[in-house]
Amino acid sequence: MKLTVLGAGCWGLTLAWLLTDNFDEIVVWGRAQDLSEDLINNKHCSKPLEVQLKDKVQITSDMKDAISDADIILSVVATSGTRDVCEKLKEAGIKSEQILVNASKGIELPSLMRMSEVIKDVLPEQKLAILSGPTLAKEVLAGLPTAASVASDDMEVAEFVQKACNVPSKFRLYSNNDVIGVELGGSLKNVIAIASGFAHTMGLGDNCAGALLTRGMAEIVRVSIQLGANPSTLYGLSGMGDLIATCSSPMSRNYTVGSMLAKGKKINDILAELGSVAEGVKTSKAICELAKKLNIEVPVSNAIYEAVYTDITPQALLEKLMNRKLKEEERYV
User: Fold this and answer.
1) Which one from 189, 265, 282, 293 is the annotated catalytic residue?
2) Can you give the pTM of this predicted structure?
3) pLDDT tens, position by position, 104-115
4) Which of 73, 118, 226, 244 sits between 20 and 30 A of 181, alpha carbons compared?
5) Residue 227 to residue 222: CA distance in whole angstroms
6) Residues 272-309: pLDDT tens digits?
7) What is the C-alpha to C-alpha distance for residues 136 and 215, in angstroms, rounded to an integer?
8) CA neighbours closer than 13 Å in the CB half-sphere of residue 102
9) d(CA 305, CA 228)
10) Going by C-beta distance under 8 Å and a sequence separation of 6 or more, which residues neighbour residue 189?
C-alpha cells in the first residue's frame, strides 16, 4: 500500500515517521518553498522538532506524482490552506476511491466550515475520514503511546484507515461515525489550551486549572451539540482526551501562545517566535462567531479572543471572567 502525507510541517513529518513501516511506499508532499535542502537530501528536519525519516520516504513538491496510486492521502496542512490544497488535489486528478484523511484541527474563516465541509465543497465525491486525538508530536517522536479517533460517515472507510494506520504499542486508533463531534472536539479545545497556558503563567493555581478545563469543556459541548455532535463523542479521545493533553502540556503550541500572552507579548510577535501554526488563534475568532450565530455563551473563548485581538491586560481579563453574572451549572447526561 502507498501513503501520501500532504504537509511537511511538524505533525505531517511526525506522522510520516510514525507510519513508515505500515506502508510499502510513503511520500511526503510540500510546497517547494517549504521543503528544506536538509529534508530533501537527508530526510531530516531540525525545526521546530527534530525528525529523521527513513530512506524509503520520498519527498516531493509534485502533487500529481505524490498522489498517484496512493491508497490513503493524509492531509496535514494548516486549516487556512486546506481549500487550496484540495483544489490542487482536484487539478492533480485525485480519484474518488482514494481515501483522503484530514488531520488538521481548525475551522475555516470566514466561512466557519469544518475541514470535512471544506473538503466536500471542493471534492464532493471523495472518500473522507478525520483523524483527531491527543497527539503531541514530541511525545509521538519519543515513542510514547497514545490513541486517537478515526471518524467517517462511512464506517468501512473509518475501519480501513484504522487498520492501516494503527501502530502496535504506540498509536492505537478507534473508529467513529460522528464526524462533527470528532472535528469540533479537536478544533475547539485549542482555544481552551491557550487559556490554560495563560492561567498557568499567571500563577493562578491548580484549582483554577481544573475549573478552566471544566468550564472550557462546557463551551465545547454547548456549541458542538448545537451543530449536530453526539455529546458522548466530546468526552472521548478527540474531545476530553485532546483537551486534557493540550491544556496540561507546554509542548502544545496553543498552550505556549497562552503562556506568552500572559507575559504581555503581542500575538504577531508570538507567532513569529513560535515559527509554526497555532490553530487556536484563528479558532478563537471562529468559535466566537459561531456562538454569536447560535446565541450561545462562550465566556472563556471570548476572553481568549480578547487576549489575542485586543489590548486588554491579563488581570482585567481574569476579573472580567470571574465576576460574570452567577448562573446554574448545565448538565448534559
Assistant:
1) 189
2) 0.94
3) 999 999 999 999
4) 73
5) 9
6) 888 777 888 999 999 999 999 999 999 999 999 999 99
7) 23
8) 32
9) 24
10) 216, 220, 239, 242, 243, 246, 247
For the chain, what is the HEC assignment?
Answer: CEEEEECCCHHHHHHHHHHHHHCCEEEEECCHHHCCHHHHHHCEECCCCCEECCCCEEEECCHHHHHCCCCEEEECCCHHHHHHHHHHHHHCCCCCCCEEEECCCCECCCCCCEHHHHHHHHCCCCEEEEEECCCCHHHHHCCCCEEEEEECCCHHHHHHHHHHHCECCCEEEEEECCHHHHHHHHHHHHHHHHHHHHHHHCCCHHHHHHHHHHHHHHHHHHHHHHCCCCHHHHCCHHHHHHHHHHHHCCCCHHHHHHHHHHCCCCHHHHHHHHCCCCCHHHHHHHHHHHHHHHCCCCHHHHHHHHHHHCCCCHHHHHHHHHCCCCCCCCCCC
CB count within 10 Å of CB 171 equals 19
Longest dimension (CA), the chain: 60
Q: Look up cell 531540525; give the residue.
A: 46
Residue that is written with C-alpha cell 492533480 in the block: 92
Sequence letter at residue 297: E
User: In the block, which residue shows the cell 484507515?
Assistant: 161
